[in-house]
Structure formats: C-alpha cells, structure tokens
Amino acid sequence: xxxxxxxxxxxxxxxxxxxxxxxxxxxxxxxxxxxxxxxxxxxxxxxxxxxxxxxxxxxxxxxxxxxxxxxxxxxxxxxxxxxxxxxxxxxxxxxxxxxxxxxxxxxxxxxxxxxxxxxxxxxxxxxxxxxxxxxxxxxxxxxxxxxxxxxxxxxxxxxxxxxxxxxxxxxxxxxxxxxxxxxxxxxxxxxxxxxxxxxxxxxxxxxxxxxxxxxxxxxxxxxxxxxxxxxxxxxxxxxxxxxxxxxxxxxxxxxxxxxxxxxxxxxxxxxxxxxxxxxxxxxxxxxxxxxxxxxxxxxxxxxxxxxxxxxxxxxxxxxxxxxxxxxxxxxxxxxxxxxxxxxxxxxxxxxxxxxxxxxxxxxxxxxxxxxxxxxxxxxxxxxxxxxxxxxxxxxxxxxxxxxxxxxxxxxxxxxxxxxxxxxxxxxxxxxxxxxxxxxxxxxxxxxxxxxxxxxxxxxxxxxxxxxxxxxxxxxxxxxxxxxxxxxxxxxxxxxxxxxxxxxxxxxxxxxxxxxxxxxxxxxxxxxxxxxxxxxxxxxxxxxxxxxxxxxxxxxxxxxxxxxxxxxxxxxxxxxxxxxxxxxxxxxxxxxxxxxxxxxxxxxxxxxxxxxxxxxxxxxxxxxxxxxxxxxxxxxxxxxxxxxxxxxxxxxxxxxxxxxxxxxxxxxxxxxxxxxxxxxxxxxxxxxxxxxxxxxxxxxxxxxxxxxxxxxxxxxxxxxxxxxxxxxxxxxxxxxxxxxxxxxxxxxxxxxxxxxxxxxxxxxxxxxxxxxxxxxxxxxxxxxxxxxxxxxxxxxxxxxxxxxxxxxxxxxxxxxxxxxxxxxxxxxxxxxxxxxxxxxxxxxxxxxxxxxxxxxxxxxxxxxxxxxxxxxxxxxxxxxxxxxxxxxxxxxxxxxxxxxxxxxxxxxxxxxxxxxxxxxxxxxxxxxxxxxxxxxxxxxxxxxxxxxxxxx
Length: 951
Prior knowledge:
A hairpin with a 3-residue loop joins strand 10 (about 165-170) and strand 11. The chain is globular. The protein has a 22-stranded antiparallel beta barrel. It has eight helices and 49 strands. About 5% of the residues lie in helices and about 55% in strands. The chain is mainly beta.
C-alpha cells in the first residue's frame, strides 16, 4: 500500500511538472540603475517600462530597477521621473533565461511642473520597503518581509518570526521577544488585537498563519503613544497580503514532507470521525445532545442509562504515518463596479502533518535521586484548513478602503501511551491519554485611510471583530497498575486505577469535555495633522483604541469507578474494552460527574484608550516623538468556588508617557534613544479558579482566584529604556546595534504551590529587571569580491542577529524558590540567528542555509524543594534549495533540523547554574527528527493588464 501511494505521488508530480513546463513561456530579465546626470546619484521613484507593453516598475531608493518575466524579443525602454526629461532607449534585447543590464542617466527638466496626482497601492512586502519602514519608524523596530520569507522553507508565522532579532519561539507557537516570556508580548493582526484560542496562556498561536499569506512582520520594541500599552518585550504586528491592483495572478503551492522516526512508521490514533480530514472532528466527539448533569437528582440506574449513551472511544488504532501534505493557492484579480476597481485576493490553505515522538521522562526526590521514570510514545496528527478573502479599493482622491477576512480551522488528534518504571527498572504502570482538540479562529476588519487639507491631515481607522473557539471533547485518561508475574516468563497483572465507588479520578479513569469561546470587538483610529511652528513642520497625532472581549469557558469531568458489587475481573480488561457500555451496571462500573463550580467561568474585558503625540523636528537632524497614552481597563470574572458564586471586577487607570529621540547623522546613519512606560495585565485564565492536570509533566495548574479569592492579581508596570545605532550601507542592507533596560514592578510569575502534589499558580513578585544588547545585520557579500578581486561572492548575502540578555527577579516573602536570584521565567540569556542566501543573477537558483540557537530558559519556576525546570540550548540548521524551471514553475527542496539535537529539560540539583546535560538530571527529553520537504509552485497570469507605476 505504501509503495503504491509513493508511486502515485511521483507520477502525479512528474505529470504536473511536464504540463507546467509545456505551458511556460521563455522569458528573461532587464535590470539596471537610473541616475541623475548632474549629481550621479540614484533617482528614487522613477518609472521604467517597455514601450507598447504593460511591463514596467519603479526605481528603488538607490535608483535600481528590475523587470522580470519579460518575453524574449527586442523593446524600447522608456525611463521617466517627475522633474526629469523622459529618455527612450531603443533596441533592448531580451534573451531567454538571461539578464540584460541597462544603465542610464536623466537630465533635469527646468519647465514649470503642473500638479500630478498618482493613485495606487504601495508595495510593502519587499525587503527594501520593510527596511525603509524600519528606518522611518519613530521607535525601535525589527522586521522581516515576504521577499525574505520566500527564500526559506518556513511554513508558518511562528517559524518566520524567529528570524527577527531578539525573538524565540516556544512550543513552535508562542513568541518570546528579548527573552521575555509570551505573556509579556502583544500581537496585532492588521493593526487590531489578534484573537487567541489559548485557554492556558496569554499569547497568539502564530502557527495558524501560513507563511505564504504574510506581507510582512514587524516587532516594535519600545512604547509609543499610538501603540497599545500592554506589552514589555515587544508588540508584534502581523500584516497579511494585500490585494494588488492592476494584477491578475493565480499561484498554487504543493509540498510533501518526510520526518525521520515518523513517516512510514507505525502511528497510533483513536477512532476517526467525520470531519477529521479538515479539522472539524471535535463536532462528532462531543457529548450526546441533551446529556444531563449526572447529579443526585437521578437514581443510579438512570445514571447508568445515560452512561451507556457514551460511545466507547477508548480503543487505540494503528496505522502507518503518511507523508505530510501542504497545499495553498491564491488568486489575485480586480472587480470592476462602474467607476470603481476593487482589488481582490482569495487564498485557501490546507495542511495535514504527522509526528511520533519517543519521550523519556523522569521524576526525582529533593536530593536529586530518581524515583520514577516514564517512556512516552506520543502520536499527533495535525490538520489545518484556512482561508483569506480581502478586498481593496483606492478612490479617485487617493483614499483607500479595505475589507479583510481570515479564517482558520485546526484539529489535533493525539494519543499518548506511557510506561512507568520504578528506580530498579521494573514496569509498574501503563497509562493512556487520547484526545482531540479543535480550534476555530476568525477575524474580520474594515479599514480606511484618508487624507485632507492638501495631505496635511491623515486619518486611518480599523474596525474589527474576532472570534475564537477551542473545543476539546472527550479527553480520555486511563492508568493501570502493573504487578510483575511471580512465575518466570509470566505476563504481569494489570489493574485499572479506579477510585472507590462513586468517587471521581478524571486523571486515571475519566473523560473530560472542555469548550471555550471568545468574541472581541475593536476600533482603532489615528488622526495626524501637520502644522508649521517656527518654520518647521510639527506633526500632531491623536487617536483612540476601544476593545471589548467576552469569554465563556465550561468543562465537564466524568470518572469511572467499580461498584461495590462489581466484578473485580473487569478491572483487568484491556484499555479498548474496559469502559465499554456493556461493562456499565450494578455488576460493573458506574460513571460519576464531578460537579465542581470552578469548571465554569464567564469573563469580559473592556479597554478604552486615547493618546496625544507630537512629532517635533528640533533640528534638521534631530527629531523628538513624545506624548502620553491613557488606558482605562475593566476586567470582570464570574465563577464559583466550593459551590459559592465568586465575582471579581477590577478597574485600573494608567497614564503611559513616552519620549523617542532620533538623530540622523546622514542618509545612512541614525541614532535612537527612548523611554516609555508599559503594562502587563493578568489574562482571564491566570485569574480564573479552574485547575487542570497536565498529563505531560504530571502537575496541577491553578488560577490565582482558586487559592486567593479575595486578592486579585495586580497589573504589572514596566519602565523601558532603549538605545540603538542604525547603519544602512545600501538598498536592502542594514546594521543595527542596540541596548535596552527594563524595570518591572509587580511582574506576574508562574510559581510553585505548596501542596502534597506538585502544582503551579500565578502570583505577583515585587520587582524584576532585564537588560541586554542586540545586533542585527543584513548585508550583501559583494564587498569581499571588490576587496579580494574575486567574483564568486557577488550573489551571496548574509543575515545575522544576536541578543544577549540578563534578567533577575526580586522574590518576596510569599514566594518559595529554588534560586532566590533566578532569571525571569521563560527568559533566554542569549539568542543567535544566522543565514546565508545565494541567488544566481537570473534568480533561477536560490540556496539558503539558516542557523538558530537560544540560551537555557526556565519553563517552570521551582520551589525550595523542587528545582527550576530549564530547557537546554538546541542548535538547529535548516537548508533549502529553489530552482526556477520556467517563469511559471518553481521547484523547491528543504531539510529542516539537520542536526536533530535533543529537546532536553533538566533540573539544576547541584545549584551551579550551569545547566549542563552531563551534570543535571533530565526531566524530559526527545528528538523531533530531521524533516525533509519537496514541493512545487505554479504561477499563472491569465491575461495582461496595464500596470500602474507608483512613486
């Protein structure tokens, strides 16, 4: 069967390649530089086009231009720019697969210019435009463009953002900026807050956004009046692709992936349900309609009747893990309505992946001696279905309107089997966890940009609605005690660990149903007006941000126990049969619901913010952007503890001042210095009293209200200082060196609870600090050719970024800690990213090599009897190769995680703070497996349209 599928896949790819090649045209490229004839400087914003065709484009900040996909032939090249005389270059010949170089100069046109109005959409996804945006920003910013993204094999936004200076990724989904944990970072999607479907952590799942749909990603690292106040590490702005006017294009990408240790190997899953293939499997796994609360209002025979309505979903099925599949397609076009031309982009994406990890876990006593060891076999199947539909219209007066829609549906089917051994290596326990999780995310936005008063006044606004849902139905857990046979070679005796009759132990013999839904409504508006003050143009900014979020969470927990008259032999039934409906009854098991008022909460958050800012050019080179932001926030939670209702409403008011100085030494050198105050508010889940059992780490997690119902978490405040020197050698290149310092007041920490079982909750520490250095470099290596007289490096460029960070928490008397001077939880002391990019002059070949490593970071802060859990550094190397076969067909291959180093969590029992695998015992460890991909990309332009050159 496996060989048959492989043959079919190869035949399909071969046929597609043959078809696409047959359809392709023979094309070439024209590139060059346009300069001022008098000054010999590059002309910015010039227009270059081929006469009597629709092919053309602008010049960049250095006067460079590049026209790709030009059909073979001879053309007249027309070069023009405002205030210059137009020049036409005759007999420009284009040869298939080659680049024709044309350099020219324009003379100044001395005639009086009439007013010119140009309407269009500026490209924002190129490396040049992103660097220009960073250079012109009022604050410290780092970013990455889609032009750079396509050079890598990054699949989603989580993998993309780790290339940005000071950024790391946890659990392949959650972002850390400058070493600060994900709770200290905010995410906006197209300039409004991004919806989150995470019940446990304050963060945005970046893995829901495929990399092919990204326009650019920017990380703002210090406060400014127009930015939201709730971040300390960074504000990550994710911009999706925009509709393009005067363009009609269909693109399709297909790739297949092979993972060592998973693909083609045995793979375990529960019973498949309708909708699994597209991420909608949670719908069929829920409780039967009208399933009642199994309380004392029902007699036992009635509860047995309802218990038998639950399908036996405990059997585990074995299959072969198929190769991963990824597909996405995008269609760009225009819709003509009378006098309006509406740009449209439609995109769909689908992903189906498999992973199987062998995870070694250990438990230790206070002296660091191992007491238990576990071997986990974890199979996960992840499916994602997504769609984007965006519309864009530019009015005759230059105003712009956009309608954006993003939908993502994800499903994860995961089965974990665990074997537990005592310290002598004897099997003492077998445990199983089977679960399916569905996540739905939708965000819709209507945005506008307007100019008034001869472009002295601008107004931009975004109204948004977001919806997120996380549905985790029927999470099943079963544990057996294993007793070795008294006879040599005999099978061990296994007995399910059910509690006494009528009791509930959902962690060892139970089923858990959880559902969360959240709605958010946002409005962001910014007004800027330019006024003359002492012959200088001062920009005054004012704006508001309104946000309302409403969340509802509910869980239902059921546990199996053996009736007093039940047959003891049933406790040794296999996991697939033990809780079958036929085993429910007076002589078997009963199902009891855990009626706990903490299993439900409703919450809302109302945020009203306003700001006033001033952009003041103190001199021609020195600029000050200053102002203040006011934020009023009301957070409400309604829940119950021990059967009694609990309602908490916390209102806070903060004024957040900031000042950002920038000094432009010249066109290529810039210095920045800034101060700003920001916030970090508690998330719903951190306060809600619901507690849950973490099967992976065998710990309990409590919301703060569970232990302190009368003491709400405080809002943390952060004072931020930043300094950065910026150097821009040439177009598309930069070198940034920076330093930062942050002082935290009342930081929120995940800390150990002193109970009989290991547990965590959230609490405020008195204070903390973090400071560090950053280096960011993007540079072509052609200067080495000039220095050494070689020619082999002109097509090679390098990207490197590094962050060195030091942090320390000041713990109060209410904290118990293994290390009273430990780092902030989740903080890495260093992060390094490096990349080499090679492109042939015609872009027919692209080769990329990428490297990443992060320093040891605390995942769980310990107590005086339990050391911190630290993730050790892990070096990763990724390689990719792209071949442009024709103007319409591109093939790519990649290898990710070439080194396949171990993911290793250790505990520092010897207190030397060195965090070494050879000296510190491992709490958990596994290898993800080297990952290989092979794919193709197809571009089709149905018909040519007249281009709109933009300045």
